[in-house]
Amino acid sequence: MSQSSNNSNTEQVAEDKITSSTFMEGIWENNPVFVMLLGLCPVLAVTNSTINALAMGLATMFVLLASGGLVSILRNHIPKQVRIATYIIIIATFVTIVDYLIQAISLELYNALGAFIQLIVANCMILGRAEAFASRNPPMKTFVNNLGMGIGFTIALLCLGTVREMLGSGTLLGFPLFGATFEPWVVMILPPGGFFVLGGWLLLFDWLKNRKEEQAKLAEIQEAPLGN
Amino acid sequence: MSDMTNTQAAPQQPASTAMIVTLSLIAALSGFLVVSVYQFTKPIIAENKRLAIEQAVLQVIPESTAYQPMVLDNGKLMKPGETEGGITIYVAYDKNKEFIGVAADGQAQGYQDKIQLIYGYKPACECITGKKIIKLAETPGLGDKIITDAKFNANFDALSAKIHKSGTKLAHKIVATNPGKKNFPWQIDSISGATISSVAVGKAINDSAQVILPQVNRFLAKLKEERYEPVIQQQ
């Protein structure tokens, strides 16, 4: 590190710059659920309805933003040896806060989310972001990145929640969609449905990615001179 | 790289004070935040819980407009706070502030997990007047019909719960029968496809009613006479 000290100032400034990819990273390129496959426990467990998925996504985003912010502010004061313990205390604090806040907002929602509120503390996405991003970047940049990650996570939960609620209960946000003749696929709101729908979404995203790559390859070949 | 780890490995030992200080400060900050939020949300959460119970009590006892909790402990009827422990019952009043009935909690093992409910009892008809499921983890679409199924809920419009003449138990055990086999007013017609959940509802009510209702019956005069001023009025 000392070797590059003369460059470090300019590099630091470049690194601290907030670009659109700082925000978009979590939503698309490195979506925590569909690309990094992190935090799948709540993704599978509480997405049996849209409202549960939304609440879980927002709760996780709150913890992510608050803990990321605090970790980022304290990043230069935390000794390396105890950093994980410190992150866990910080995360656990905000999870407890979110737990009380949800009880205050709606007991019904609290009962529906069950133990998964407390289990946000074990969501590897949050610890992962604290370790990989917040501990190395200034608060503002961390905030923007974590906001992207949180939105990406919430979108992923909603992707599962809406599909499972539509197929499993025939409703969306509690409003009936298909009329009385629709027989709900109950399996979709049971645990196996979570795996089916997650598998379906992963398949779709992988297929899109592959198709894009193949098209890029095809374009490359077509552009290349015939002699090659 | 190896050069870096060597230089970093050496000062690791003396840094323990910094570690302790950091962890202590973080823990203190954490404690402060959690306690502040706890203090802030405590009254709101208590109010939410009270509203949830109130809603349930007023629903299971038709025509009730207010209620207050009372405690049955060692064969005595007391106000909450006068005793530790005991069984909480919810005494309900009609719009003239007359005693109308009581509601109580019950629970029994369902298909997945314990089913918790509140049921209402009116001494005037000696019957259960309604039930509301508070918590369940039954299979969606099957077991959770015990909340929504209209035919099943009709069982609890006037479910007979006469007290045995010995005054210590119910005259008949409240029990869920097989679907379509209800012959007596103290039986509950199960939902086809949700028999285990239906039986659990019957058991939850029976277990609780066998203990509580005879005691309520004994205190009936007291409950009617004392005209407790309900603290909580429906808006």
| Main interface: chain pair and counts | A-B, 30 and 26 residues
Integer-rounded radius of gyration of chain A: 21 Å
How many individual domains of chain A?
A: 1
Structural class of chain A: mainly alpha
Shape of chain A: flat
Poorly predicted ranges of chain B: 1-5
What's the layout of helices and strands?
The complex is a heterodimer of chains A (228) and B (235).
Chain A: H1 5-16, H2 20-27, H3 40-45, H4 50-73, H5 83-105, H6 107-113, H7 124-132, H8 139-169, E1 171-172, E2 175-176, H9 191-223
Antiparallel strand pairs in A: 1-2
Chain B: H1 2-9, H2 16-60, E1 66-73, E2 76-78, E3 87-93, E4 99-109, E5 114-122, E6 127-135, H3 145-148, H4 150-154, E7 159-160, E8 175-177, E9 187-189, H5 195-218, H6 220-226, E10 232-233
Parallel strand pairs in B: 8-9
Antiparallel strand pairs in B: 1-2, 1-3, 1-10, 3-4, 4-5, 5-6, 6-7
Polypeptide structure, described:
The complex is a heterodimer of chains A (228) and B (235). By secondary structure, chain A is mainly alpha-helical. Chain A has one domain. Chain A is 67% helix and 2% strand. In chain A, strands 1-2 form a two-stranded antiparallel sheet. Chain A is flat, with a radius of gyration of 21 Å. Chain B is of the alpha+beta class and 235 residues long. Chain B contains 6 helices and 10 strands. In chain B, strands 1, 2, 3, 4, 5, 6, 7 and 10 form an 8-stranded antiparallel sheet that branches. In chain B, strands 8-9 form a two-stranded parallel sheet. The N and C termini of chain B lie far apart (72 Å). Chains A and B meet through helix 5 of A and helix 2 of B.
